[in-house]
Amino acid sequence: MDRGHLLIRGPDDEKHRIALEDVAVLICNAHGLTCSVNLVRRLAERGAVVVFCGSNHLPVAWTLPVVGHHEQSGRMRAQLAATPALRNRLWQRLVRAKIENQAAVLEAVGQVGAALEAMSRRVRPGDPDNLEGLAAQRYWPLLFGEGFRRNPDGEGANALLNWGYAVLRSAVARAVVGAGLHPTPGIHHRSAVNPMCLVDDVMEPFRPFVDLAVRRLLEDGNEQVDPRSKARLVAVLYADLEVQGATSPILVCLERLAASLARSFRDGRVRLALPHPPTALELAALGRETC
Fold first, then answer.
1. CATH code, domain with 50
2. What is d(CA 250, CA 236) in angstroms, rounded to the nearest whole number?
3. SS3 233
4. At 106, which helix (H) or strand (E)?
5. Which of 85, 144, 251, 273 has its CA 20 to 30 A from that of 239?
6. Residue 67 pLDDT
7. Mean pLDDT, rounded, for 168-172
8. For the chain, how many structural domains are there in total?
9. What is this structure's pTM?
10. Strand partners, 249
11. Is there a contact between 104 and 208 (Cβ–Cβ < 8 Å)?
12. pLDDT score at 68
């Protein structure tokens, strides 16, 4: 940290400066990287998240701000007090939105998404029929080919997905904490060893946009997690989506969704601000541009 800026020094001692106010998430993915405690502290004071990744490009550690909202205590109590019925209805909406967006992504790459659109309309509270999983079984082969298997330890498309999801997950964590919610107690995810259960719930509708960016990287012959692919995956956060009649970058949509989730917990009814499924034309630039 140097005079209100993130100061980056490369191996050749070349220096780059970025204003701390412009940093939403700092992702540390290089093994030889070092950063100062002062920098991490100043970023946390501004609501930014710092993520440290392992060799598979997945997060192994995070720093999150302790205080994210002036009503944080009350919002967390409402979150913990949410009834199973409310959680089931919230999960229904999140799963429905995820499948709708998967269908939109398939249409954007020239596949037919009608089957997934029909499936999304059948999702019941809590998704007891596991339509999320059934949709995935149809979705992955159509997007990446019949031989594709989602493997967090894999290379190529899987490594790109890992890094893209790490970017998205960190942005969602920032939005969740910023809305005064606790990232651990989830709506649907319940793992005893996952400290980001709520984050993983909230990010589900946005995963397909990372998938589309990875598909387009592969179409361009880029199968490595390198500076070019990282820039295009980060740019996903700046793609515009329509939410309740207003068009905003995904980074802003995440904040609106987290705030609406906090209101849902407070009021005891579903009030989620979810993006409208984009058209193929609206998705035309996603994954092709860099931020």
1. 3.100.10.20
2. 7
3. helix
4. helix 84-108
5. 144
6. 67
7. 92
8. 2
9. 0.85
10. 240
11. yes
12. 66
